[in-house]
Amino acid sequence: xxxxxxxxxxxxxxxxxxxxxxxxxxxxxxxxxxxxxxxxxxxxxxxxxxxxxxxxxxxxxxxxxxxxxxxxxxxxxxxxxxxxxxxxxxxxxxxxxxxxxxxxxxxxxxxxxxxxxxxxxxxxxxxxxxxxxxxxxxxxxxxxxxxxxxxxxxxxxxxxxxxxxxxxxxxxxxxxxxxxxxxxxxxxxxxxxxxxxxxxxxxxxxxxxxxxxxxxxxxxxxxxxxxxxxxxxxxxxxxxxxxxxxxxxxxxxxxxxxxxxxxxxxxxxxxxxxxxxxxxxxxxxxxxxxxxxxxxxxxxxxxxxxxx
Amino acid sequence: xxxxxxxxxxxxxxxxxxxxxxxxxxxxxxxxxxxxxxxxxxxxxxxxxxxxxxxxxxxxxxxxxxxxxxxxxxxxxxxxxxxxxxxxxxxxxxxxxxxxxxxxxxxxxxxxxxxxxxxxxxxxxxxxxxxxxxxxxxxxxxxxxxxxxxxxxxxxxxxxxxxxxxxxxxxxxxxxxxxxxxxxxxxxxxxxxxxxxxxxxxxxxxxxxxxxxxxxxxxxxxxxxxxxxxxxxxxxxxxxxxxxxxxxxxxxxxxxxxxxxxxxxxxxxxxxxxxxxxxxxxxxxxxxxxxxxxxxxxxxxxxxxxxx
Lengths: 308, 308
Description:
Nucleotidyltransferase, domain 5, 14 helices, 308 residues, five-stranded mixed beta sheet, disordered C terminus, alpha/beta, ATPase_NBD (chains A, B), homodimer, 2 domains, ATPase_BadF (chains A, B)
């Protein structure tokens, strides 16, 4: 009996899965964040080891014939991280080396078994990625909260506060976002209070306000509805910059909390992908399973080596 | 012979001027930043004292019959700051108390002797203020770099980097801003390099890139031209939120480095103020003289008391 292992590791948590070559899931594992850029290579590898040992359990490690690790920050961490992953594979006694891929390649595989297509991620940040032969070949945006991430959770949350401030000082129309944002951030809905609350925490904390925009839009708030439509337009504009029609793509995968939450934004993006680019959109499922799917499809190979 | 004193104090420097009631300038003084919120009340008062002593020089301090201090962060610093200013006036032997006003009231007075009108400030940040009887009665925006300051130097600088990134990944049109921004920030004009440089310094440092946008627009760059036009529209929208026509205003004062720099943005804003709102715009001159003008016009009065 042969097995493969797939891992998805991000900034806050790591998930691993052991899968039979027939596709059946035999074990799962969880651990903390394992982004080597954010946490250091030693800590990242330690978390990967915890998740992998849990997933493999009592199955003989030498029966693992392919292992794909999707690690945020992994592909840019260079030789020292690749060496540490090699040592980890030996320490675990795996029957193969581990292949390091990007978290976006894993997310795409979590939505489709196809090798080519477009991946839209909108969580705290936002990026659009072109995937070819299972690999990320190009991306648009992903420029972070200060410079871009148009249509992301941060972007939505910031727009919510801006709409509240605009409603207070007369620049914008009245909106229920004022009461909702104030309810999250402050006791009294004043400009000074909102500003103090927003500047008093890390900028990315604004991403937590994103669900308020969806909620207000569903409740009929026109200002929130405009923000949602603008977010969809910005995400679709990033897709457009990849020119998926000329590239011959037919599939898109949606990932990230903002796009995976059911609601008007996911609907607008899905409809826009079909209407503007002829792309059929599917949500990303379990990302550790996505990594395992890459392992099953033969993407696995020697660490740092050329993937098939 | 009687005299008045005017002071403009900001985050980075403080300027004072001693003026005869005839209007003649008899002395000037300079010191470091005196924003009590940013530097603490003790440090702020120490810098104010340095600038005031220089400006008063050998003129008998008891002949100073009015003193107006425009201090950024002053009006929100409350009783402790007002008490410290009272002690300062006694220590200097002034023949009057000092009146604390906002830096925007001083900036408006630096552009006109009128008592009513609209003030547009666009420097690192941006805010539009309605002035009535020399006092700030309302403002729009001024929400800071994270939430607003639309049309400010920060806003322009950030748009410059975004335009460069968009030119690199295909979202945006080619623009000379790519070479110019890269020339300021990095050795090689790559997305990764630009992002690393922008995130590697404080967000407000992006304001230093604002002149690149003006320069590129003047050189015929269409992307830069659109950014400048958008900045002007945003500043004019903030003015519109104050509804100056209904309020009967006829005067506007432009302040801040972005609006005081000659070029297309100041021209578009000046033309827009006239066309849309019937406002005649003038640039703010010497802000310490603006404070002295307020002192001469009788705005001075007891610290913390009601101004005439």
